[in-house]
Amino acid sequence: xxxxxxxxxxxxxxxxxxxxxxxxxxxxxxxxxxxxxxxxxxxxxxxxxxxxxxxxxxxxxxxxxxxxxxxxxxxxxxxxxxxxxxxxxxxxxxxxxxxxxxxxxxxxxxxxxxxxxxxxxxxxxxxxxxxxxxxxxxxxxxxxxxxxxxxxxxxxxxxxxxxxxxxxxxxxxxxxxxxxxxxxxxxxxxxxxxxxxxxxxxxxxxxxxxxxxxxxxxxxxxxxxxxxxxxxxxxxxxxxxxxxxxxxxxxxxxxxxxxxxxxxxxxxxxxxxxxx
Length: 276
Known about the structure:
The protein has 276 residues and is mostly beta strands. It has a single domain (8-274), classed as Porin, CATH 2.40.160.10. It has one helix at residues 13-20, and strands at 27-34, 40-48, 51-62, 65-72, 77-84, 90-98, 105-112, 115-122, 128-136, 140-149, 154-166, 169-176, 181-191, 196-205, 211-222, 225-232, 236-246, 249-258, 267-274. It has a 19-stranded mixed barrel. It comes from Raphanus sativus (Radish).
């Protein structure tokens, strides 16, 4: 998290990335090119069964200002303008999606050695207002995340969390879904030289009393190749291998099998990300 507690989204993020990032059951190709003026264009195509979806992302940077324009295959256009370090620690973000007239919003993020604040408001007559705040240090952080719909007068969500970071260990506890779901996560670096990491996530529904448990691990076979595995209490097991075949270019192969229905075919996903 750096020198401060970070933003609320960083609570439990290491464990979530370990357990869920890069796993997929589709075929995905991503190619990034750069113009002589520094404009980056990323073209992405994903084959989801009989459906093919794609998008083109254009990123333009000028000092502290970044503009991202994403055109998707459904003809929607998402534009995001980010101004970093407007003042020390402050980031301003303006985003809008066409043709969704209610999607426009402005967001402010502020990082301090003992606090992290993020607030956003929709640019409509009756906007949705989001606020998240974290206080503490890089070791212990306590925060909350609230979303309020001014049109209905109701809270869309109300979450709270705490995170503890010490050397090679990160533990977090969050209360989500307006107090109906309790989530605990654990992230432990076993061997930093081999990038060997283990982690777990336990979700308990206070309403249905149902528990969901997911455990996972990763290990670097060599400086360019990493393997990851995970399994949950429903018997769903996943594994992937990711290789950096050139700088910033990755090939990822992942698979999923249901151990309680082993006769079913395994799901296989493939992703190729190419950057010059």
